[in-house]
Specification:
The complex is a heterodimer.
Chain A: H1 32-39, H2 41-58, H3 60-63, H4 95-131, H5 133-147, H6 151-162, E1 166-167, E2 170-171, H7 172-179, H8 182-198, H9 201-208, H10 213-221, H11 226-249, H12 261-264, H13 268-272, H14 278-305
Antiparallel strand pairs in A: 1-2
Helix pairs in contact in A: 1-2, 2-4, 2-14, 4-5, 4-7, 4-8, 4-11, 4-14, 5-8, 6-7, 8-11, 9-10, 11-14
Chain B: H1 2-29, H2 34-42, H3 48-58, H4 64-76, H5 90-117, H6 125-136, H7 139-154, H8 169-202, H9 206-213, H10 218-255, H11 261-271, H12 274-302
The chains are: A mainly alpha, B mainly alpha.
């Protein structure tokens, strides 16, 4: 039957002459990126926002009108004006510039920790599903233990244990602390996808061909859990940005004088925000916008790649 | 069902033991113990003998497994130890703050659930925006905005001292309703999204088409047929988020300057007060596991199709 459908999209009449002519719409093949933009307009919009943030963060030196660390005691707590678009803080630092430099911190921490957390989580999930049995049982119990900590409690404890370790302007230990709570969640979702893949004939074939466990896991199984991996990865960037902001706010994340959104809400902002509300309004908007974009993009990516996945 | 229940209860023990070991080891890995911190804070030179004596007093000089053994045996007789910082029993320290935090958590849950249920969440685009914004806004920032709004509009800020609700309900609520709103908003956003997606899913089912085909009012189709079946995942979220609210309070209590367990946690972690942190983590983890368990049981009670073995 399938062969009787011609390339033009009509059915070969000599075979089923009795039925009236039916024209089939052959879906146009579009580039996946275009397809994504057409089916997920909101997702495409959020992607644009994300790209803007990236550009702003990456080229912060060119975009920001002031040095984020420059103190100006003549313009302390200045209201938004043409000189200082979003006003200044208690030390006369330009809020707009600090928000732009803060994007750099938020995106770097968000990306790296989400990447670390999802990758380790996915690896654990696949390994757990592949071996099954006791290994699976042991890994899952350990993940249960990690899951019974609220995220922030776990991250806080890890920060306290590891202390600070700043490499190239980034606190590696903070990234690790944010990544760890993600591991069990990703592991759980990826494991359930991998369990189905383990039963596929091609895994049996690979085993019959005498491939080693590591090769099967990384060459045959891992590529098939890329969809949930990518979805979790983007969703957790949002979580990571939020968590970084919370930890910095508590004084346990990024520390002064580095520009970071959560940090801009703490410290002297706490004392002066009644007089200078712009000090807290704009950094909060920045956090919300970033988290919003990544959440929305993650949702659209899920609808596009795997609508049934529950994250 | 009974077997399943017993099984689950038995499974809790290794998980809780794991949590205990993990938090115990994590704490001992922290650089510097409470003795050092305390004396460093006070400044000045302290002789090693004084430090050693203080460690001995707190039982920190014992081998690590003896410390663990002491802690575990203490828990079994309901003795969580004494706060290394304040010297008061851990239970007392926590109990005095738990009331406040629990009240905020419960109020936030109620507010959030109401907001999620009393909106025609499956049609309204606005609700979507509301929910997505709720997920994106840090609740501590929302808290600051609330305080700012109150201050600018009414020139009034919530009272700073805690009054139990049975003493003066008005004063109590005027202090605690605001953090509850800040935390509850995020919570309702999660619940709303969950309700929305499950109702959408359920509305695709055959029995909904049947109900419509036989001419049932749309209100009844949604209210009776769809809602009931969509409630299960929502209950899960309500349960699990409730446990996590306690975690969310860690930051929000800071904003409102509330002396609850969230603030206590941050303080004790930074002070390396081992006994307090251990007890707090165990409390939250136990609570989380119990809620998880209760949700599973509720599932079975509500949906006759679910049978556990």
């Amino acid at each position: 039957m399938r062969r009787s459908i011609l390339a033009s999209g009509t059915i070969d009449m000599s075979i089923i002459a009795a039925t009236p002519e039916i024209t089939y719409r052959v879906p146009k093949r579009r580039h996946p990126a275009v397809q994504f933009a057409v089916t997920q307009p909101l997702g495409a919009m959020s992607l644009v926002l994300i790209v803007i943030m990236f550009i702003a963060g990456f080229f912060a030196g060119f975009v920001a009108p002031y040095d984020p660390l420059e103190l100006d005691y003549g313009a302390m707590l200045a209201a938004p004006s043409r000189d200082h678009l979003l006003g200044t803080d208690a030390f006369g630092r330009d809020v707009f510039s600090r928000i732009i430099y803060g994007a750099r911190t938020a995106l770097a921490v968000g990306f790296l920790s989400s990447f670390m957390g999802s990758t380790i989580g996915a690896a654990i999930g696949v390994v757990s599903a592949y071996f099954g049995g006791r290994i699976d049982m042991a890994i899952q119990r350990f993940m249960d233990i990690l899951l019974s900590f609220p995220i922030i409690v776990l991250a806080l404890s890890v920060v306290a244990v590891l202390g600070k370790n700043v490499v190239g302007g980034l606190d590696i230990n903070l990234i690790i602390a944010i990544a760890i709570p993600m591991v069990p969640k990703v592991a759980r979702v990826v494991r359930s996808s991998a369990l189905a893949i383990r039963e596929m004939p091609y895994i049996d074939a690979a085993r019959a061909a005498g491939y080693g466990n590591m090769r099967i896991i990384f060459r045959h199984m891992a590529p098939n859990v890329v969809a949930p991996y990518l979805i979790m990865f983007t969703a957790f960037i949002a979580q990571a940005i939020l968590l970084e902001a919370s930890l910095s706010f508590l004084g346990l994340g990024v520390t002064e004088p580095t520009a970071a959104w959560g940090l801009m809400l703490s410290g002297t902002s706490q004392d002066f925000y009644a007089q200078a509300p712009w000090m807290i309004i704009f950094p909060g908007v920045a956090i919300s916008l970033a988290v919003f974009s990544f959440n929305l993009f993650g949702d659209s990516l899920r609808d596009y790649l795997d609508p049934r996945l529950k994250v | 069902m009974l077997r399943y229940t017993i099984n689950r209860i038995l499974l809790m023990i290794p998980t809780l033991l794991g949590v205990a070991v993990l938090v115990f080891v994590l704490l001992r890995l922290m650089p510097g113990d409470i003795v050092e911190m305390r004396f460093l804070l006070e400044g000045g030179q302290v002789s090693p003998e004084t430090l050693a004596a203080e460690r001995a007093r707190l039982g920190l000089d014992k081998a690590i497994w003896w410390q663990f053994y002491d802690w575990m045996t203490g828990i079994f007789v309901g003795d969580f130890g004494i706060s290394m910082w304040t010297g008061r029993p851990v239970i007392e320290e926590i109990a005095s703050r738990l009331e406040l935090s629990m009240q905020v958590a419960v109020m936030a849950t109620v507010l959030g659930t109401l907001a999620a249920l009393y909106k025609d969440s499956w049609i309204d685009r606005l609700i979507q925006v509301f929910a997505i914004a709720g997920l994106a806004m840090p609740s501590f920032w929302l808290g600051m905005l609330i305080i700012l709004g109150l201050l600018l509009n009414f020139n009034w800020i919530p009272p700073l001292t805690f009054t139990p609700i049975y003493e003066d309900p008005v004063k109590n609520l005027s202090q605690l309703i605001w953090p509850a709103l800040a935390v509850g908003y995020r919570y309702s956003a999660v619940a709303t999204r969950m309700t929305r997606s499950t109702i959408l899913e359920v509305l695709q089912e055959d029995y909904i088409r049947t109900a419509r085909a036989k001419g049932l009012y749309e209100r009844l189709v949604v209210g009776r047929h769809a809602m009931r079946n969509a409630m299960l995942p929502v209950i899960t979220v309500i349960g699990l988020e409730f446990a996590f609210l306690i975690g969310g309070l860690v930051v929000t209590e800071q904003v409102f300057n509330l002396n609850g367990i969230g603030k206590l946690f941050v303080e004790t972690v930074t002070r390396a007060d081992y006994t307090m942190v251990q007890a707090l983590v165990m409390l939250v983890a136990t609570f989380f596991i119990l809620v998880n368990f209760a949700v599973d049981l509720l599932y079975a009670a509500l949906d006759p199709r679910i049978r556990y073995h």
